[in-house]
Amino acid sequence: MLSLRQLFLLNNAQTSSTPRLLEIERAEGIYMYGPDGKEYVDLVSGFAVSNVGHRHPKVVQAIKDQVDKYMHLAVYGEYIQTPQVKLAEKLVSVLPSSLNSVYFVNSGAEATEGALKLAKRFTGRSKILSCHNAYHGSTHGALSVMGNEYYKAAYRPLLPGIGFMHFNNVKELDLIDTDTAAVIIESIQGEAGVIVPDHDYLQKLRIKCTETGTLLIMDEIQTGFGRTGKLFAFEHFGIIPDILLLAKGIGGGMPLGAFVAGRDIMDSLKDNPILGHITTFGGHPVTCAAGLATLEAILDENMMDDVAEKEALFRKLLQHYKIREVRGKGLMLCIQLDSFAQVEATSKACVENGVIIDWFLHCETALRIAPPLTITFEEIEKCCEIIKKVL
Ligand code: PLP
Questions:
Q1: 107 lines ligand 1 (CB under 6 A)
Q2: Does ligand 1 come within 6 angstroms of the Cβ of 222?
Q3: Which residue, judged by its Cα, is nearest atom 15 of ligand 1?
């Protein structure tokens, strides 16, 4: 009989020739457990997803309760489904008043797709600007606005009319003009290796977008839901986007995404043509029930309160002669090393020592640190000890 590992390699599509091949039997809080009972700290939150930890009890209960009522009923936007309505209401209540219409999808890439279409439809323009080293997903539209030619070249032709500017470069904001439908940008670049922009960069970007009638699409798929110490990272910069992208942490471990805009903008998907964006499963009642429980858990359990202190502890403890820099905001951090060889070896040895860390799509010389917000100060200390020992 073939082992699970052999079957995985045989029948499951592979995305690289060096998968991590970690077998996990169950997960709870910040921990994952292998079939042999080995305990791992998930220091990357399943790639910025498990902000409330794995299998948060309130999320699990909400899923069970909803499964007992109904699962899929109809395509998105036709029936009144309580979990969708309640989650949209809750999201709107925690967002600035101009972001008051929520379109639910299943993933981050789909949120990107929907937002790009919405911006083109609303403005009647087709030019889109993105940033070098940006990551917004892997479908054709999202890939078109990815800022790394290595991943795109083999899939061309992609969307026409896409331009790129350097993140955090004020001069290049001049590329935004009255032909530009939208700028799509991460509030803090994730896969670029956690690049936090200057405060006035995003403010100047906001002004330029407003001046030219360009919609500002902010991708908070990785930064959202408390990860940086605020519910959404744009709050740190005193700006409000026109379209907000959410996914990953929003579902508490379930596949959920959303793009959020003002009702006036979103309404342009309603006619000429009608059904401007269609999804069968977007806003699935079970994932929305999980999403609502996730948001309530973050707020009711004050999970964001000590994120800044936890960041400070990581920064204090991660002092080592091989560490060039610890970058990021809140619990979206990275450890800058010198080479990919170091990153690969450190990450592999950390996993062997029960701490899961990883690297980034566009930055292979830094290690990703993005634990569940529920990680305790003692757990941070233990993890940092292991990382330093391994280094
Ligand atoms: N946007 C950002 C900033 C991301 O980090 C990701 C995924 O890593 C995506 C979009 C795409 O999300 P998904 O993998 O759910 O399609």
A1: yes
A2: yes
A3: 108
C-beta 113 within 6 A of ligand 1: no
Query: Are 354 and 386 a contacting pair, CB within 8 Å?
Result: yes
Judge contact between 112 and 184, C-beta under 8 A.
yes
Which pair of structure tokens corresponds to residue 272? 């000429």
Sort 161 into a burial class: Cβ within 10 Å, 0-12 / 13-18 / 19+: middle
Separation CA 252–CA 93 (nearest Å): 19
Domains in the chain with CATH codes? 4-55+304-390 (3.90.1150.10), 58-300 (3.40.640.10)
Which pLDDT belongs to residue 34? 97
Q: pTM score, two decimals?
A: 0.98
Q: Quick check: CB of 32 below 6 Å from ligand 1?
A: no
Q: Is it true that the peptide bond before 273 is cis, omega within 30 degrees of 0?
A: yes
- Partners of 215 in the β-ladder: 182
Closest by CA to 246, choosing from 186, 286, 156, 315, is 186
- How far apart are alpha carbons 243 and 163 in whole angstroms? 19
| Phi, psi torsion values for 175, nearest 5 degrees | -70, -20
- What is the 112 CA–ligand 1 centroid distance (Å)? 9
pLDDT at position 262 is: 98
Distance CA 220, CA 217 (A): 9
Atom of ligand 1 nearest to the CA of 137: 11
- The span from the CA of 146 to the CA of 132, in Å, is 7
Determine if ligand 1 sits within 6 Å of the CB of residue 196: no
**Residue in 48, 111, 10, 80 with CA at minimum distance from that of residue 361:** 48
| pLDDT tens readout for residues 117-143 | 999 999 999 999 999 999 999 999 999
Ligand 1 centroid vs 357 CA: distance in angstroms? 18
247 lines ligand 1 (CB under 6 A): yes
Report phi then psi at 163, rounded to 5: -115, 165
Low-confidence ranges of the chain (pLDDT < 70): none
Q: Do residues 179 and 128 lie in contact, with contact meaning Cβ atoms separated by under 8 Å?
A: no
Which residues lie across from 162 on neighbouring strands?
128
What contacts 28, CB < 8 A, 6 or more positions away?
A: 53, 54, 55
Q: What are the backbone dihedrals phi and psi of residue 102, each rounded to the nearest 5 degrees, phi first?
A: -110, 125
